[in-house]
Recover the amino acids of this structure.
């Protein structure tokens, strides 16, 4: 695991990686450090990152392979949540980048200690397949959720997502001209760094408001 922030923090955000990059990717490093730097909560705060087993296998073997089935990924994420609770966490937020956030959304209602869900670029549908939505389970969730989504995200852009009519416990924050990793086009006034910082501030605000 990689931990950014206060050691033995009472409040923790667990962030899972996307399908093609591990917990130590440039995106994961940047958002974890930025989020942890913006939050000051009594009892401390930390961002916890981990690799799914299939990603550890890729790193060890050097051979690419697809992610495991959703049930196996959920089992792994559930084990991480249990470990954090046993380690002293009193309030947990879970989420992740793309696939990591989707897996977190499938299990966030299962543990009362989980106070919120954070999705960084939610994969609403496969690229170029807007009719194959991955949203059905979202309408049943009770956990408050923040989705930071690039306006140009090929997995669900600013024109498409409002039409999904997500429940009131979902908040969408649009990242200016961002793609699936919040990278804007060169002609845009904002930079990738500014967009990641903007998303991180929104996550910090979301967590701080829930924690009171």
């Amino acid at each position: 695991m990689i931990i950014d922030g206060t050691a033995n923090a009472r409040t923790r955000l667990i962030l899972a990686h996307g399908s093609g990059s591990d917990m130590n990717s440039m995106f994961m490093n940047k958002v974890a450090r930025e989020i942890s730097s913006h939050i000051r909560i009594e009892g401390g705060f930390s961002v916890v990152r981990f690799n799914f087993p299939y990603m550890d296998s890729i790193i060890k073997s050097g051979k690419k392979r697809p992610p495991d089935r959703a049930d196996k990924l959920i089992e792994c994420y559930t084990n991480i949540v249990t470990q954090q609770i046993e380690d002293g966490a009193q309030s947990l937020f879970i989420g992740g980048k793309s696939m990591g956030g989707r897996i977190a959304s499938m299990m966030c209602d299962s543990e009362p200690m989980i106070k919120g869900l954070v999705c960084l670029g939610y994969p609403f549908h496969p690229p170029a397949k807007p009719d194959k939505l991955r949203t059905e389970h979202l309408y049943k969730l009770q956990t408050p959720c923040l989705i930071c989504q690039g306006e140009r995200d090929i997995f669900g852009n600013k024109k498409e997502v409002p039409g999904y009519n997500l429940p009131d416990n979902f908040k969408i924050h649009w990242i200016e001209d961002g793609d699936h990793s919040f990278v804007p086009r060169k002609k845009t006034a904002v930079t990738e760094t500014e967009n990641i910082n903007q998303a991180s501030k929104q996550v910090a605000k979301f967590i701080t408001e829930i924690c009171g």
Remarks:
- The beta strands are 2-5, 11-16, 45-50, 91-97, 114-120, 145-150, 170-175.
- The first strand starts at residue 2 and ends at 5.
- Residues 143 and 151 are 24 Å apart (CA to CA).
- The chain is about 30% helix and 20% strand.
